[in-house]
């Protein structure tokens, strides 16, 4: 982990989120939990995709989420495993990767500086579908989070920790990135 005088420096994490069991419910809950833990989230369009490397008739909802955290990759993955378990996934099942799932969180990349071009290196078809949906919003799916709708465009999600209210802003990726990097830095005490 990189450090600066006064403490650890945040890393930007690029995370895939998928579900094919009650995905709208599990996505909304996961967005709320991620925002409560890490602050501002950048969420790509939510897309419906065919199952990949799993024999099931249930389509998946997938998205990419970007946020800043001072956790190490190992610490973050351990927290993701706990979150998946809370959502009903059996992390001890040796066949878990070949079964339907309530929630699946995977770290795709981490960086010291926010650079969205890293998404071009993601090879999974479901992650590329989320990136492609920024330009061609086909098969996007709506998620309702505390009465607010998102999923068709890039969105920022933020939780007001005093009130518990969640705010959702949908905009273009460029405009969201302009707003989010200063917000990420401010939340992590870097600005």
Features:
two-stranded antiparallel sheet, kinase, single chain, 191 residues, globular, Alpha-Beta Plaits, 4 helices, 7-stranded antiparallel beta sheet, alpha+beta
What can you tell me about this protein's structure?
The protein has 191 residues and is an alpha+beta fold. It is built from 4 helices and 11 strands, in the order E-E-E-H-E-E-E-H-E-H-E-E-E-E-H. The chain has one domain: 7,8-Dihydro-6-hydroxymethylpterin-pyrophosphokinase HPPK (Alpha-Beta Plaits, 2-Layer Sandwich), CATH 3.30.70.560. A hairpin with a 6-residue loop joins strand 10 and strand 11. The N terminus is likely disordered. Its EC number is 2.7.6.3. Belongs to the HPPK family. Keywords: ATP-binding, Folate biosynthesis, Kinase, Nucleotide-binding, Transferase. One of its GO terms (molecular function) is kinase activity.
What's this entry about, in short?
The chain is α+β, with helices and mostly antiparallel strands. The chain contains four helices and eleven strands. The chain has one domain (3-187): Alpha-Beta Plaits (2-Layer Sandwich).
> What is the N-to-C order of secondary-structure elements (H for helix, E for strand)?
EEEHEEEHEHEEEEH
Poorly predicted regions: 1-7
Separate helix tally: 4
Structural class: alpha+beta
**Whole-number tally of structural domains:** 1
CA distance, first residue to last residue: 19 Å
The portion of residues forming beta strands comes to: 25-35%
Query: How is the CATH topology named?
Result: Alpha-Beta Plaits
Identify the overall geometry.
Answer: globular
Function: Catalyzes the transfer of pyrophosphate from adenosine triphosphate (ATP) to 6-hydroxymethyl-7,8-dihydropterin, an enzymatic step in folate biosynthesis pathway.
Domain 7,8-dihydro-6-hydroxymethylpterin-pyrophosphokinase: 14-111
Pfam family, one: HPPK
EC number: 2.7.6.3
């Amino acid at each position: 982990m990189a450090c600066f005088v006064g403490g650890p420096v945040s890393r930007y994490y690029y995370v895939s989120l998928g579900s094919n069991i009650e995905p709208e419910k599990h996505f909304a809950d996961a967005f709320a939990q991620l925002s409560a833990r890490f602050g501002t989230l950048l969420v790509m369009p939510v897309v419906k995709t065919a199952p990949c490397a799993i024999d099931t008739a249930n389509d998946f909802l997938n998205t990419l989420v970007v946020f800043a955290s001072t956790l190490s990759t190992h610490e973050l993955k351990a927290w993701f495993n706990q979150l998946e378990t809370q959502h009903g996934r059996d992390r001890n099942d040796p066949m878990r990767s070949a079964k339907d799932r309530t929630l699946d969180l995977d770290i795709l990349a981490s960086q010291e500086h926010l650079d969205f071009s890293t998404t071009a290196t993601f090879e999974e078809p479901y992650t590329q579908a989320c990136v492609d949906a920024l330009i061609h919003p086909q098969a996007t799916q709506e998620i309702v989070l505390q009465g607010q709708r998102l999923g068709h465009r890039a969105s920022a999600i933020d939780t007001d920790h005093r009130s518990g209210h969640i705010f959702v802003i949908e905009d273009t990726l460029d405009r969201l990135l302009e707003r989010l990097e200063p917000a990420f830095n401010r939340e992590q005490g870097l600005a």
